[in-house]
Specification:
alpha/beta, seven-stranded mixed β-sheet, two-stranded parallel ribbon, 9 helices, 9 strands, acyltransferase activity, acyltransferase, Lysophospholipid acyltransferase family protein
């Protein structure tokens, strides 16, 4: 109910009226059943606009920092994230990664849509970076299709470090579902997981024509002189 109120009453109509977001390929999202939406990640705003553009509710796996802020701003961010279907995850690796995987599998097990950023973090410079293999493992274990999604101009509307967005049109291009059923039962093979992940990233690159760099975005961020891009 809270998600419905946020999307259709409290926030959604206002955001749509101001930014007039557009979407193409919405028919590629199944009307029922579980699926993973694999999106490029240009801006914090990606997690706001994509759910608003879909007819079905969806959940994103979001870093837990968004849910632990203090004061009024922290409270507002926490309420907003929960209201828009965000699920807090710990991205520190190890057991935390396993817990994140299990959370995603629970969402898919309910027959819902799950949004994932395969790059693992926002792009620091608008390029598309190497994908993390967690998405491949989820897709193979849950036996669900992966739908590539390219967000457009969200980095211009809300650049990294900017708190107040620029008012402009943003959009999303949704590609055809990718079927990985040929790899059934191979979710523990790291070579297969890498191959599936790379196929997803190739689909994203072709859909959005972003420049691709075969390194992890987190590695690029670690080289930056300032941590403001995180």
């Amino acid at each position: 109910m809270f998600y419905w109120l946020m999307k259709y009453v409290a926030i959604g109509p206002l955001v749509k009226a101001i930014f007039r977001p557009w979407v193409t390929g919405q028919d590629n999202v199944p009307a029922t059943g579980a699926a993973i939406l694999a999106s490029n990640h240009l801006s914090f705003a990606d997690s706001i606009f994509l759910p608003l553009l879909l007819d079905r509710p969806m959940s994103f796996l979001a870093k837990s920092d968004y849910f632990t802020g203090r004061g009024i701003r922290g409270w507002a961010t926490r309420v907003f994230m929960k209201g828009t279907g965000q699920i807090p995850i710990d991205r520190s690796g190890g057991k935390a990664s396993e817990a994140s995987l299990n959370t995603g599998l629970q969402i898919l097990g309910r027959g819902d849509l799950l949004g994932i950023y395969p790059e693992g973090t926002r792009s620091p410079d608008g390029r598309l970076y190497r994908g993390r293999t967690g998405i491949a493992r989820m897709a193979l274990e849950a036996k669900v299709p992966v739908i590539p999604v390219v967000m457009v101009d969200t980095d211009t509307a809300m650049p990294i470090g900017k708190r107040v967005p620029n008012v402009m049109r943003v959009g999303a291009v949704i590609g055809e579902p990718l079927d990985f059923s040929r790899y059934a039962g191979m979710e523990n093979d790291r070579y297969i997981l890498r191959a599936v992940t790379d196929e997803i990233m190739i689909a994203l690159q072709r859909l959005g024509a972003q420049q691709y760099d075969d390194v992890y975005a987190s590695t690029v961020k670690d080289r930056l002189p300032s941590a403001s891009a995180r």
